[in-house]
Amino acid sequence: MTPLSMFDVTDNVALITGASGAFGMVAARILAGAGCKLVLVAGNQTALDEIAGECRGLGAEVTAINTRPTDEDICNDLVARAVTAYGSLDILVVASGMNKVALVNDMAPETFSAVMDANVTQSWLLARAAAGHMKAQGSGKIVLVSSARGLLGHPAGYSAYCASKAAVDGITKALGCELGPTGITVNAIAPTVFRSPLTAWMYEDTEEATKIRQGFLARVPKGRLGEPEDLSGPLLFLASKASDFYTGHILYADGGYTAG
User: Fold this and answer.
1) Given pLDDT bands bounded at 50, 70 and 90, which one contains residue 253?
2) How many CA atoms lie within 13 A of 224 on its CB side?
3) For 240, how many CA atoms within 13 A lie in the half-sphere containing its CB?
4) CATH assignment of the domain containing 36
5) Beta-strand (E) ranges in the chain?
6) Domain assignment present for 202
7) Of 20, 150, 186, 213, which residue is the least packed, with the fewest Cβ within 10 Å?
8) Pairwise CA distance, residues 201 & 208, whole Å
9) Angle subtended by helix axes 159-179 and 122-137, to nearest 10
10) Active site members
């Protein structure tokens, strides 16, 4: 095996949920460009059509499914549809999720529950559904999306989000241990701030954005905010044979933010 062949995912089948979101689009583009067959899942039909068209333009075979992985039946069906469409499921990327920001005494309990359900329960259900098929084929790559906030707190109303991402870290470690003997790896990418439609304001040259950005950058050894391509390499690593000996690992894509 040559060094570059370790990263070869040509003709692998990848299921990506949250494919129209910031991380999901990065995952779709990099795996499409790397030669994967894609099953893209998103609740926003217009955005889903756009990213599916972009991936087809990169030469990928794409099945687009307009839904959200909100319960067991849907998660099981998504895996079944991927296997029916392409014959296998080699890679699962769970990029779906949500955040609701509010101080603890201003956050309704049902809001906390909604964040936990979207980020934790749905990650577990999708991993569970994928593992059922991957065990039978003796291999598979499951990549969850965590955050630097799974390790670190935040003073501005992130109690639900931080708790949910810490739980994703726990799922990653537990399933990494449980599924390791079956040939399945389970890992998570944990970014800090990176450029997306939701964070575009932090990259602007306004007085407010500059002040917030400078305060944040004082904690980032690399001295800059993240770009989408900063997530591409880690994803390809975790989706390929190059990471066969890595499981239960949280890979921080954060410019050193959590190291300091």
Assistant:
1) very high
2) 5
3) 22
4) 3.40.50.720
5) 13-17, 37-42, 62-66, 91-94, 140-145, 184-191, 250-253
6) no
7) 213
8) 9
9) 20
10) 161
Show the tokens assigned to 241: 């044979």
Of 47, 192, 167, the residue nearest 117 (C-alpha): 167
- Structurally, how many domains does the chain consist of? 1
CB contact at 8 A, 147 and 165: yes
Helix axes of 22-33 and 229-239: crossing angle, nearest 10 degrees: 60
Q: Is the pLDDT of residue 137 over 80?
A: yes
Length of the chain: 260
Q: Is residue 74 part of a domain?
A: yes
Assess contact for 44 and 21: CB atoms under 8 A. Answer: no
For 77, 149, 219, 226, 259, the CA distances from 23, given in Å and listed in that order, are 23, 16, 23, 12, 22
169-186 tens-digit pLDDT: 999 999 999 999 999 999
Between 194 and 53, the more confident residue is 53
**Secondary structure class of 109 (helix, strand, coil):** helix
Domain of residue 12, residue span: 4-194+229-254
For residues 9 and 33, is the Cβ–Cβ distance under 8 A?
Answer: no
25-29, 88-92, 128-132, 149-153: lowest mean pLDDT where?
A: 149-153
- Confirm whether pTM is higher than 0.90: yes
